[in-house]
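Protein record

Derive tokens from sequence
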Amino acid sequence: MTGSVRAAVVQFEHAPGDKRANFKKIDSFLYRAAREKVEIIVFPECCITGYWFLRNLSKGELLKIAEPVFDGEMSAMLMARAKEYQMTIGAGLVEVTEGGELYNTYVVALPDGRAYRHRKLHCFISDHLNSGTEFTVFNTSHGVRVGVLTCYDNNIGENVRMTALRGAQILLAPHQTGGCRSTNPHTMGLIDRALWDNRKKDPGAIEKELRGLKGRGWLLRWLPARAHDNGVFLLFSNGVGIDDDEIRTGNAMIIDPYGRIIAETWKAGDDMVAADLDPSLLVENTGQRWIKTRRPELYGPLAVPTGLEEDIREVRFDEKGV
């Protein structure tokens, strides 16, 4: 990382299946970000297509909202905006390949015309969507190396470590989380829809939930550790508000390589926060020093199946945890 980079993270409430309406929101934030001299902006997982409703769609219905990456309309629009604003832009959608395979994909468009995609490694939303098989790390025109992990991908410590080992200095972490249904009292739980619907009359009640154990409180149990232990900046974007039958908690935030939050929002609505990423924090930080003292010769069992592995969908939908 050769100099300070101004980054922004966005939370917004998407419209299920309405790609043009969702992209209109993206455009409004890009206009604002350009005024604030943002160089890298991160939008949420599947924010172009919508997210939680996908689990109820047939393959035929999914194919109607999916599109190719990078040749599809939405990818082309992201790439055009990246050039127009000279900004690196990331946003999520449902991808369809030439062979008809479907993925939860995050597209990152760069100002120089390049674009990259990350296919979510731990995709559980639908039996019709496949999980990706590759880590995504690349150089940018901002003099910084960037990695991408989508939502549940960040829950697995090995994924973040692998991304850091490939040289990522900034981790883009688009999510749709918070307020998730669970029978486990130690994890998240549903937020009463009435609190969201009444947010303008009683903003304190919904903000208490968003900042509490179903939202920010849950995230702070683990998210800063991902940044700290790997010595990377972490850009967390998220949905907020109604996501089918759940309420997403937003809490978009930027975390530095020491696990400190340097910008955040808990607004009960669409919002964006930005911060300048100080490259000096990447020099000899705690996480990078710890990585230097690894003993890889001891870690062979990490890549050997234990017999305890289970399908991501079965684990995620047992409703005991997330």
